Amino acid sequence: MAETLLKKLCAFGFQLKSEGQNLNYTVPKGVLTPALLGRIKACKKGLLDLIRALPIEVHRHINQVIQGDASEVLRQIPDNCIDQLVTDPPYGIKFMGKQWDKALTGPEVWKECLRVLKPGSFAFIMASPRQDVSSRMTSMLEAVGFDTGFSSIFWTYASGFPKAHNISKIVVRRQGEKKITSEVRRIVGSYAGFQPKPAVEVIIVAMKPRAEKTYTDQALANGKGITWLDDCAIPYDSEGPGRFPANLLVSDNVLDNGKGCQDGYSRFFSLDAWANLHLRELPEQVQETFPLLIVPKAGKREREGGLEDIPEKVIKGRDPGQDQRNNAFKPRPTVRRNNHPTVKPIQLMAYLITMGSRVNDIVIDPFAGSGTTLISARKLGRRFVGIEQEAEYHEIATKRLLHHTMQMGKEQKQERENV
Predict the structure, then answer these.
(1) Where are the domains of the chain?
(2) CATH T-level topology, domain 65-163+198-293+344-418
(3) Which CATH class is domain 1-53?
(4) pLDDT digits (tens, 9 = 90+) for 310-356
(5) Confidence class of residue 258 from pLDDT cuts 50, 70 and 90?
C-alpha cells in the first residue's frame, strides 16, 4: 500500500525526504487534498521505510516505461541502486532498414548502466551472432568497466528464415533467361558472402565489478556477484531437481531427431521444459500469473495482447526480418499490430531475470522495445525500470504491460474465488 501511494505522490510531483522520524515533503499547489493527506498520515511508517531504503529519484522511475534517450534517463537514476540489467539493444546491423539499429549503442549508455547497477550485479545483453558485432559489443562493455569474463548464453530455435542473397538468380534477372552463359552456370547455387539461416542468438553475460574481495564476501554484503543457477535448472521430467544449466538454451526441440524429445538432445537444454515445469516451484503469487508458454519465439497472442486499438500494418516480405534486396524467396505480406521487428518471447527474458535477480529486485531495460523484459519482470514479482526512445514502440510496450497486468489481476481474483 505504501509503495503504491509513494508512486502516486511521485507522479503528482511530491518531493519527499525523511528527517529522523519525520516525513517531510513539498507539494505542488492545489494537489494536496484532505483525503490524500489522510492516506499519507496512515502510511507514514511504510513511506519512511521505502524512502530510507531507496533514493526518491528511483521511485519516480519504478514500474514505469519512460520514453526518452537511454543515456539521458539513466543520468536521473542514482548510483548503485539497480539489481539487474536485461536488455535487447540495437544490434548494429540496420535490421529491416531501421535507423535505430544502424549502429551499436555507444559507450555512454553502457557507462551509465554500469554506474546505476549495484556492485556485483549481472547484465544479460542480447547480441547478434555476427562475429564483428558481438565482438565489438563485448569489447565495448569491457572498455567501460564491466567484467566480461563469463560464457555467453546461446539461444537456438527453428523458426528463422533464410535471408541469403542468391547470386545466380540475381545474375539471371540482370541478363535474362536467354543470356545464361557458362560463367553464370558456374555460380548456380551460390550465395553472397556467408549468410546461413539464422538459428542462434547470443546473450552476452557481464557483471559490474565486485566491491568486495571475493564472491562470497560480495554475496554476504549485498546479495550480488552470484547467479541463481538452481532456479534455472532444466527439468528431467516432472520430478527431480533438474540438470545444471548450460550456456545453451533450446526452443522448438531443434536438437532432436524428429521422433520426440526423448530421442534427442533438446531435453538437456530445453527452455520450453524450464518454462513448463520449473516455474511451478516459484512462490505462489508468481505461479498463479505466469503464462506457461511453449513457443519458439513470441507468438501472435503473446506479442499483440492489449494492442487491439492499434491499427494493423502490412510488413512486406516472407518474414518481417527479411531484407527484400537479399530475399531469394517469394515475398508475402505480413500484417501486425506489434510491428517491432525483434520481439523476444516472455519465457526467454523470464529465464534471464530468474538467473540474476530475486523477487522485489529492480530490473532495468534501457532498450525496452515492445516491453517483453518489463512484462516478464512484473510476472516474476520484480520491480522494473523501462526506457524506450521510439514513440511507436513506447506506446506498444505501455499497452502490452497494462494488458498483462490486468490479466494477472483477473487470474489472481479467479484463484481467490476458487479457494
Answers:
(1) 1-53, 65-163+198-293+344-418
(2) Rossmann fold (3.40.50)
(3) mainly alpha
(4) 556 655 444 433 334 333 334 455 544 544 445 788 889 999 999 99
(5) low
Global pTM exceeds 0.85: no
Place 113 in a pLDDT band, splitting at 50, 70 and 90: very high
Specify the residue for cell string 498463479.
288
Distance CA 153, CA 137 (A): 15
